Every structure is written in structure tokens, then in C-alpha cells.
Amino acid sequence: MEKIKYSLVLTLFAFLYIALCPPLAAQKPLKEYQKKWAAAPGVITKVWDVTNSSNNLGVELRISPTGEAPFTAQIHHVYSFMEDAYDNYKPGKALQVRYDAAVSPFDSTKITNKVVIEKFVNSAADSMAVQRTLSLLKCDSVHRQVLANGLPAQAVVLEYKPYENVDLRIKGNNPAITLRLEVKPEDKNPFKATVEGIVILEASIPKYQPGKILYVKYDPDDLTKVAVDHSE
């Protein structure tokens, strides 16, 4: 009987705690200066308990900013006793972080207080946004390789459309796009290629419309790999 009463008291306390102290029952809100840090998707890669603190975790994060190289950071994260820590804080869990870009790159072997967890990715929309961001990162990696090692050529824009047919805007109002091009190398036959996941400045949108001339680089061993160098 005493155990039942004790359980009821704990349950009542939990409800009162959530009702009267919502900021404490939820994940700790970001400070105003942290809200101004860069946002990026991330994935938990490692979790460990911090000594002498039952709700303080060490968390290793793999962070993937759009258009930049992914990086690893380690943080101390204090979670609420009311959170389901077992479900939230485990490797593979997707989330959004805020990080102070002014101090990057981060030392992946040391704890930093310049990265914070903003929210967990639970909805289908959030999950899709993370997948699109990771896809853009893969495109960007290919583009960088081609720009570093490819051969130069002119190209004519045949088709302009949003990346994956979604109006995705990066770092303000800059669109991610896909282009269908006719590439015209010197002393070689022209060929058609599709370039996906390019992020351009909003002001430059008119320069990437059908009929416009672009300067590109291409991989002579794989003509499907083309990267836009610049527009006219």
C-alpha cells in the first residue's frame, strides 16, 4: 500500500512539475546569442556519462553545414530529468545544432561550449530536410573535385529548375538548383550533362536561365561529372 501511495505521489509531482515549470521540464532553451549562431543538421555518433552528474552527458556530434565540409564536435549536454534520455541521446539520432562559425574549425578531441543542441529531428518534414542537406553535401563534394581537377569548357543552359523540384533556400534566400547543360569543349564534340545541387546567389538567378552561357569544368573520363565554375 505504501508503495502505491509513493508511486501516486511521484506521478502527481511529475504532472505538477510539467504544468508549473515547463521551461525546466523541457530541453533547456537556447540563449539569445546562441540563437544567432549558424544552424546545421547533425547526428549523434557517441554518448557517455559525465562523472558525478546523473543528467549531464558527453555527446559527440557529426555536423554537416550546407556547402561546407562536415566536422565533428564534442559537447557537454545537460538534459531534463523529464526527458526520455534513452530514446533521445543515442548514436544515430538526428538533430539540429547551432554552432559559432567564428571559432571553427573545431578540435574534435576536446569539449567545446560553442556548439549546442537546438532540437531533435522527429517529424517527416525535418527528416526530409536533413536528407536534402546531406544530398547537397554529396553534390558539393563532387563539384569541388571536378573544379580542382577537371578541364574547362563553355556550356549553354538548356533547363533551369529547383533542386529535387523543391524551393530550397540556403543561407538566406539563395536557391539550390539543378541545371541541364550542353557542354562545348574545345576540339571535342559537345555533350549534354545534368548538374545537380548547385547553390547560387539570389541576385544571379537571371544568369542561369535557358540560353545563358556558363563556364564549367568536366571530367574527361566521366562526362556525367560537370561543375559550374562561373557565369558570364
Would you give an account of this structure?
This protein is an alpha+beta fold. It has helices at residues 2-20, 22-25, 32-35, 85-88, 124-149, and strands at residues 38-49, 56-63, 71-78, 94-99, 115-120, 151-162, 169-170, 174-184, 191-199, 213-219, 222-231. The longest helix has 26 residues, at 124-149. The chain is elongated, with a radius of gyration of 24 Å. It has 2 domains: 26-122, OB fold (Dihydrolipoamide Acetyltransferase, E2P) (Beta Barrel), CATH 2.40.50.140; 128-231, no CATH class. A hairpin with a 3-residue loop joins strand 7 and strand 8. The protein contains 5 helices and 11 strands.
N-to-C order of helices and strands: HHHEEEHEEHEEEEEE
Helical amount: 10-25%
* Intertermini distance: 82 Å
Mean pLDDT: 81
**Main β-sheet description:** 6 strands, antiparallel
Number of helices: 5
Stretches where pLDDT is under 50 for at least 5 consecutive residues are 1-26
Please report which band the strand proportion falls in: under 5%, 5-15%, 15-25%, 25-35%, 35-45% or over 45%. Answer: 35-45%
* Count of structural domains: 2
Shape: elongated
Count the E strands: 11
Q: What Rg do the Cα atoms give?
A: 24 Å
* SSE class: alpha+beta
